[in-house]
């Protein structure tokens, strides 16, 4: 299956996120959207998309929405993530996350969104994320594989 127009492949090399590969991202509206085609690595023993894969997709989507709203490229650690599983995502189906709401406070970001498939709503999610006042503890160069974080490569400015 080909992703919908505007979606680009998220590169590999992003740690745990690689478990969702092939993963796609589109940034053409207020919030980034992510999507995947449910394939063998995403399936549980019942042959449908595993809840952990849906939670990972929700977490990546919500954190990206928070970071976009905050204008930050530093990671925003997840404090809480709640997911309501509504329907099954089946093998071969395109599942797509979208953000409904983002609210920022001094140190916290709140986000709500949904994951939808061809039959409608698959899951809804909401999360709370910490907004650090620093760039993190990593001391090496920022590794932004394919611009996923929106960071300019070092030495490019």
UniProtKB/TrEMBL annotation:
CDD domains reported in the protein's UniProt record: PaaI_thioesterase
The protein's matches in InterPro entries, at most eight in alphabetical order, are given as: HotDog_dom_sf (IPR029069), Thioestr_dom (IPR006683)
Q: Which GO terms describe its molecular function?
A: thiolester hydrolase activity
Q: Where is the Thioesterase domain?
A: 46-104
- One Pfam family, please name it: 4HBT
Q: What is this protein called?
A: Thioesterase domain-containing protein
> Where does this protein come from, organism-wise?
Parahalioglobus pacificus
């Amino acid at each position: 299956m080909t992703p919908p127009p505007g979606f680009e492949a998220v590169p590999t090399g992003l740690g745990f996120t690689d478990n969702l590969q092939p993963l796609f991202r589109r940034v053409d509206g207020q919030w980034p959207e992510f999507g995947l085609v449910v394939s063998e690595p995403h399936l549980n023993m019942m042959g449908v998309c595993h809840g952990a894969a849906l939670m990972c997709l929700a977490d990546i989507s919500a954190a990206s929405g928070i970071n976009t709203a905050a204008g930050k490229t530093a990671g925003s650690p997840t404090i809480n993530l709640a997911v309501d599983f509504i329907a099954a995502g089946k093998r071969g189906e395109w599942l797509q996350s979208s953000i409904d709401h983002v609210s920022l406070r001094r140190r916290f970001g709140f986000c709500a969104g949904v994951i939808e498939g061809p039959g409608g709503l698959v899951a809804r999610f909401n999360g709370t994320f910490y907004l650090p006042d620093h760039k993190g503890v990593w001391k090496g160069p920022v590794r932004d594989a394919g611009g996923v974080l929106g960071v300019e490569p070092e030495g490019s400015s």
